[in-house]
Amino acid sequence: MKLDAANDAAVRSAAQHLAQGELVAFATETVYGLGARADDDEAVAKIYALKGRPVDHPLIVHVHHAQAAATFAAALPSPALRLMQTCWPGPLTVIVKRREGMATAAAAGQSTIGLRCPAHPAAQALLREAQALGVAGVAAPSANRFGRISPTTAQHVIDDFGSGLIVLDGGPCDLGIESAIVDVSRERPALLRPGAWSLAELQRRSGVTIDPTPGTHAPRASGTLEAHYAPQAKLRLMDSQTLTSALEVLGNEGLATLAVYSRSARGPRRGTKLRRMPDDARAAAQELFSVLRELDASGVTLIWVEQPPEGHEWDGVRDRLQRAAAST
Ligand code: TXA
Ligand code: MG
Predict the structure, then answer these.
(1) Which residue's CA lies nearest to atom 13 of ligand 1?
(2) Which atom of ligand 1 approaches the CA of 113 most closely?
(3) What pLDDT tens digit does each residue of the chain (328 aa) get?
(4) Which of 99, 171, 181, 250 is 20 to 30 Å from 29 at the Cα level?
(5) How close is the Cα of 186 to the center of ligand 2, in Å?
């Protein structure tokens, strides 16, 4: 059931459902989340069951403001504080040491916890109302079935889970790919997942030096699995030359079951579904999951995608496409 996030009574009702231990999906500026109160292990278990997510993959806990982070963190070292002060509310998840006994199921028993303060007014309103009802944090993974494409509209969530689930509808997500994850629980802050904001932007805002490669000690994180974000169709990533030649040699039967998402491919040859990828990394991120879902739903068996350009601002999009290609 969709609830309009612009309606105060609807937000209050969504918060009450959360407070009672029920699941509520909600808009954030990155992707839609599937939320449960973080202090209730039984409520959190419903997220894992509904998503089909392995129970050893930790969830991010969403908080209304930076002060609430202290409820869940054992310590907030200065890089953590700086990141929170300069990037929150916003598309950044900070991994810190977890306060013992707090949000155990949400953290999948790990000694660390991922915290994020989302900027979207719908998420902000929901977290504020929930907090007023005694809910300090809301555990929420992306609101898609495990391993599939993340949702950027309320309809995407309903497409995955049906209309029985409450979805706080805040319109299409502005950023379109998930938050960057920075682990500050280790000696040197490290990027575990590139996100909607580039590494350069996070460093510029916060002044914190972030190691771009997590190394071998990164805890298990489904957004960091090599294969993820899978459409039903087979997704192939190619440079523009390879894509052009492949299109030239493809016969007519092939074309009928093919979709292309590219910045440079010319066409469309008759029968090809061609979507133009924006030249701007932010615009590409904003539409990425929506385009993949749409192409997938059109019944094609192949999706050929042109490699995004070099450059850090494309890291998030490149990362999601590589994982989608690895899964199919
Ligand atoms: O933008 C986002 O981050 C969205 C919205 C809903 O906030 N959420 C999201 O959640 O992308 P999810 O569960 O799809 O991805 C969260 C990632 C997973 O890869 C998870 O394993 C990792 O964060 N993660 C969570 N807690 C962690 C921890 N303590 N240590 C390492 N990784 C962690
Ligand atoms: Mg996810």
Answers:
(1) 141
(2) 29
(3) 999 999 999 999 999 999 999 999 999 999 999 999 999 999 999 999 999 999 999 999 999 999 999 999 999 999 999 999 999 999 999 999 999 999 999 999 999 999 999 999 999 999 999 999 999 999 999 999 999 999 999 999 999 999 999 999 999 999 999 999 999 999 899 999 999 999 999 999 999 999 998 665 555 555 556 777 889 999 999 999 999 899 888 877 777 889 999 998 776 566 678 899 999 999 999 999 999 999 999 999 999 999 999 999 999 999 999 999 998 7
(4) 99
(5) 23
198 CA to centre of ligand 1 in angstroms: 17
User: DSSP code of 142?
Assistant: B
| Cβ atoms within 10 Å, residue 242 | 14
Which of 60, 102, 179 for mutating ligand 1's site (highest number of atoms within 8 Å of CB)? 60
How many angstroms separate the CA atoms of 169 and 160, rounded? 15
Among 286, 14, 34, smallest CA distance to 146 is for 34
d(CA 127, CA 321): 31
* Contacts (Cβ under 8 Å, ≥6 apart) of 303: 231, 233, 234, 235, 236, 258, 259, 260, 261, 292, 295, 296
Q: Which residues line ligand 1 (CB under 6 A)?
A: 28, 30-31, 33, 57-60, 91, 93, 95, 107, 110, 112-114, 116, 118, 140-142, 178-179, 181, 192, 219, 221-224
Residue 236 burial (CB < 10 Å; 0-12/13-18/19+)?
Answer: middle
Tell me the two tokens of residue 299.
């019944």
Q: Which residues surround ligand 2, an ion (CB under 5 A)?
A: 142
